[in-house]
Amino acid sequence: MALVKKFRILLIEDDSIQSNVYQSALSRFDAEITVTDTVTEAIRMFLRSPPSLCIVDLGIYLTKGEFDREGGLKFLEQASGAHPSVPLIVLTAIRDPEILLRCFVAGCHDYIIKGDGFDDAVARLKYWIDALPVSKAELERHKSEAVAALKLDVV
Q1: What spatial distance separates the first Cα and last Cα of the chain, rounded to whole Å?
Q2: Beta-carbon neighbour count of residue 66 at 10 Å?
Q3: Tens digit of pLDDT for each residue in 73-116?
Q4: pLDDT at residue 1 is higher than 50
Q5: 3.40.50.150, 2.130.10.10, 3.40.50.300, 3.40.50.2300: which CATH number matches 7-154?
Q6: Partner of 103 for a Cys bridge, out of 23, 108, 128, 134, CB 3.0 to 4.6 A?
Q7: Residue 125 Cα to chain centre, angstroms
Q8: What is the CA radius of gyration of the chain?
Q9: Closest by alpha carbon to 51, among 7, 4, 17, 111?
Q10: Is the pTM of this model over 0.85?
C-alpha cells in the first residue's frame, strides 16, 4: 500500500540549483512537493489544487523567457485572493524592508532571506510545516507581527 503524504507544498523557484536545494530540504518532511518555475504555471497549479503551503521566489519568470524581479508579487496577489488560508512564504535575496512590506500587502505571511543561511531557512520552513494546518487567525497574527517588525526597520 502506498503511503499518502500528509500535506502538499508548492515551490515556485526558477533557479534550478536553489530549487534542488529546497526540494532536498523539504524532502525530509512528509510532504508531496511540486515545483514550477513560472508565475503562470504556478497560478494554474495553485487554483486547480491548492497546496497546504506555498513557497515563492520574489524574482521569477512570469512565463518562459519573461523575467520579472518582482514576479512573485503577481503570484501572491492572485493566490491570496483565491485561497487566503494557504500560508504563502516568500524566498528572496532582497533585504529592503519596503519591498518586503509590499510582499505582505500582496498576501504573503512570512519571508526567508536566501543569504541568511540554509539552516535558518530550513528552520523557518519547519516552523510552518509543523503548524499545518494554520488557521486564518494565526496567519493574520504572524503577518501582523512580521509587518510591525519590518516597519521598525523602515523608520
Answers
A1: 56
A2: 11
A3: 999 999 999 999 999 999 999 999 999 999 999 999 999 998 88
A4: no
A5: 3.40.50.2300
A6: 108
A7: 9
A8: 15
A9: 7
A10: yes
